[in-house]
Amino acid sequence: MANPAGRPPVFLADTASLHRDVVVLSGQEGRHAATVRRLRPGERADLTDGDGMIAECVVAAARPGLLELTVLRRHQEPPPQPRICVVQAIPKGDRGEQAVETMTEVGVDVIVPWTAERCVAVWEPAGRSQRGLGRWRSTAREAAKQSRRARIPEVTTPATTADVLTRAAAAAAAIVLEPGAGTRLGSVPLPGAGEIILIVGPEGGLSPAESAAFAAGGAVAARLGPTVLRASTAGSAAAAVLLSRCGRW
Question: How far apart are CA 98 and CA 228, in angstroms?
Answer without folding.
Answer: 17
